[in-house]
Amino acid sequence: MPHGNEHVFCWLCAQLGNPREAALRAGYPVEQADLIAARLLQRPKIRAKIEAFGQRAQGGDLSALALQGLLRLALGSCNDAVRLALMEEEPDRETLERMDLYAVSEIKRPKGGGCEVKLYNRLEALELLLKTSGDQKNPDGPGSLYAALKDSVHPAVEADEPDDL
Questions:
Q1: Residue 68 and residue 15 in contact, taking contact as beta carbons nearer than 8 Å
Q2: CA atoms of 83 and 76, how far apart (whole Å)
Q3: Structural domain spans, the chain
């Protein structure tokens, strides 16, 4: 049974689909992240735990992995991207590798100094999530996620009942 950092590694590996990034985020040293990830992945118990986390998170469906990515783009933290943009000096490799730059689409360092960081469009990611959710729940029409949220707050009222609102 995995313990401590190994357990965190398994969960992150299932969530991110990137063993190196999972090792870094689990707290393993940058210079050893690839080697540690490779060694962990050789152990059957570690692979089984990653698969179990993956099955639970994705329901066994590959399209759920794409949805996780969209969700991460739409709602994930951009703190490291802002930190990168505000750094006066260019960060070293270790600092960059520890940053979560998943939402970054482009980085430019103009000759005059500074740093330009472009992020993926969160609204587009949210729209895709909403559209996909609507398609899965009601293939005949959009907005079923909205309807589900609305119904969870105010249950549907029958036509012949007086409106309480």
A1: yes
A2: 15
A3: 1-60
Distance CA 7, CA 137 (A): 33
Coil, helix or strand at residue 29: coil
Phi, psi of 106 (to 5 degrees): -160, 145
Is residue 101 within 8 A of residue 80, CB to CB? The reply is yes
Q: Please give the Cα distance from 103 to 159 (Å, whole number).
A: 45
Helix (H, G, I), strand (E, B) or coil at 64: helix
Could you give the CA distance from residue 116 to residue 163 in angstroms, rounded to a whole number?
53
Task: Give the CA diameter of the chain.
Answer: 69
What is this structure's pTM? 0.52
Residues 6+ apart with CB under 8 A from 46: 2, 6, 9, 10, 40
Model confidence pLDDT, tens digit, residues 45-97? 999 998 888 776 555 555 666 777 788 888 888 888 998 888 888 888 888 88
